[in-house]
Write a structure and sequence with these properties.
With about 150 residues, this protein is α/β, with parallel strands linked by helices. It has helices at about 1-10, 25-30, 55, 75-80, 100-105, 125-130, and strands at about 15-20, 40-45, 65, 90-95, 115-120, 140. The chain is globular and about 50 Å long.
């Protein structure tokens, strides 16, 4: 992973993939140094929660954020929506704990076009909030608890 960090810092790469193990607190702190060219941050083995998310949000250049095995809840989503990630286009949090309250915060992400969320707590009220996302073009819900009423949204 140090090689990937070095490549991003030098401007030769805009993607950081952490796939084989959970990201550590020290590695999350290093993200603050990557304020420039990092556009894609793909964390596949966990290590991020509502409390550690601010380290990621310091990277204002993010376009694609994938956080697998990271149980972000409403507070984490509120942080996502209020920290100036204006360029974020793709958000992928397939194992989250967010409800309609947290999803409502995503409306302040002006360029979000693709959203992937998972969890049985995603219900009709959550879908109503998703429907309010102004530029959303692609939606993938994993294991939601929906009724036919959600299809109206």
């Amino acid at each position: 992973m140090q090689t990937q960090f070095a490549a991003v810092l030098s401007g030769t790469d805009d993607t950081l993939i952490i796939a084989d193990r959970a990201i550590t607190a020290d590695q999350l702190e290093q993200l603050v140094q990557l304020d420039g060219p990092l556009e894609q941050l793909l964390i596949d083995a966990g290590g991020v929660d509502d409390d550690s998310l601010p380290s990621i949000l310091a990277v204002k250049s993010l376009v694609h954020l994938r956080l697998r095995e990271c149980p972000l809840g409403d507070r984490g989503f509120e942080l996502l929506g209020t920290n100036g990630l204006d360029g974020l286009r793709i958000l992928n949090v397939p194992q989250c704990a967010v409800t309609s309250l947290g999803i409502a915060s995503l409306a302040s992400l002006p360029n979000l076009v693709q959203l992937r969320l998972g969890g049985s707590q995603i219900d009709d009220a959550a879908v109503a909030e998703i429907a309010r996302l102004p530029k959303l073009r692609s939606l993938h819900l994993i294991g939601p608890s929906l009724t036919d009423a959600a299809l109206q949204e």
